[in-house]
Design goal:
This protein is α/β, with parallel strands linked by helices. It has one domain (2-87): 3-Layer(aba) Sandwich (Hypothetical Protein Ychn, Chain: A). The protein is built from 4 helices and 3 strands.
Amino acid sequence: MLMTVAAFDQTVRVLFLDDGVFQLKAGQRPQVLDFRPIAPMFEALEIYGIEELWVESESLSERGLEPQGLILPVHQIDRREVGRFIAAADIVVGG
């Protein structure tokens, strides 16, 4: 969905919250569980002009993750700022 929206020249910002931050964790081996790897998809986001990836700082720290351990560079946002971040969007899609 992200790539489709971006293909129509819409600005896309992605915010990872809670357990969603695990999707960006480097070194995952989903094929062990017979899942398809999603890292290549995230790495293709830049091709579509999706360069604003955000993570909630508290979600990272609560799960023992560091920005350096993610597959892509991210911007961090504090939990108390998430409401304003979402309110500033024209359209919000949750997943």
